[in-house]
Amino acid sequence: SPTGLTLLGLGAMGTALASAWLDSGHDLTVWNRTPTRAEPLAARGATAAASVASAVAANDLVVLCLLDDASVRSTLDGVDLTGKDLVNLTTGTPGGARALAEWAAARGARFVDGGIMAVPQMIGVPGSGAYVFYSGSAAAFEAHRDVLAVPAGTTYVGEDPGFAALHDVALLSAMTGMFAGVTHAFALTRKENIAPHELAELLSGWLTAMSGYARGIAEHLASGDYTTGVTSNLAMMAEGNATLLATAEEQGVSPELLLPFMRLMRQLVDDGRGDEDTTGVVDLLLGSRV
Ligand code: NDP
Predict the structure, then answer these.
(1) Using CB atoms within 10 A of its CB, is residue 33 exposed (0-12), middle (13-18) or buried (19+)?
(2) Which domain CATH number covers 145?
(3) Range of the domain at 227
(4) Cα 68 to ligand 1 centre (Å)
(5) Whose CA is nearest to atom 19 of ligand 1?
(6) Is the ipTM reported for this complex over the cut 0.90?
(7) pLDDT (tens digit, 9 = 90+) per residue, 183-235?
């Protein structure tokens, strides 16, 4: 069948992907290290392969959703991959994806890496906003674009097999900073008579309103001038930081989540760049201006 595919890995995410492909009528062959996880899918029409080799032999398109790079390699070790198109949706680093691409090419397979920007509950749900970054073989991606678009949106970011992981990790890293800030906000208010769900609504609206911050940084990086259009400059923000830290102390909250970023902002002010915004921190993190 032209729409047939194989999926290796039936964890929380793999099972969600499998469901979406089955719901849309695709001919799906599945394999999982622990075979019992394939049973509910087999009951819904999937073919549960008895071995990795037979699962891979069943279709040209082989999607992987395993724990990490090591499990991808050990799972495919010794299996004939000649002429296969591997789409690896296992989260990893850009370097790991590039190494896997070479490893696959040496075995005669085309390789596409993917970074899933969703949790399993968003997979196969129209309008959920779920999408996957893809990079690597453009020919393999084009050949399977329609099948890949079934569980989530597709965003192809280039031939470099590491780019999907790099985009994925860039977004996850930004999210980590947001989670840290939200966590600190809850700690500040935890002992007071402020309902957590009320603070949550306020945080959600505020963070949405502040999300244009990224576009301001982008403009400055593109122009090389970090002073234009700055509404809150570093000198002002450094004063504000003192208030944030003093309030943390008053409330008995450790400032440890705030301090690393604030130290870098202070360094720029001390370097005489108080009329800029935080764009210069990008250069500090890299050790030099690009
Ligand atoms: P789970 O922990 O639910 O499942 C892990 C899967 O990997 C299982 O199928 C497990 O098999 C298999 N596995 C683990 N180690 C090995 C191994 N050595 N050899 C063969 N198979 C192995 O993870 P998820 O399904 O949630 O995640 C899978 C991938 O998707 C990860 O890379 C994750 O980062 C990514 N992802 C997950 C998201 C999420 O919200 N869950 C979001 C975005 C990406 P077994 O059943 O035998 O243990």
Answers:
(1) middle
(2) 3.40.50.720
(3) 190-286
(4) 8
(5) 71
(6) yes
(7) 999 999 999 999 999 999 999 999 999 999 999 999 999 999 999 877 889 99
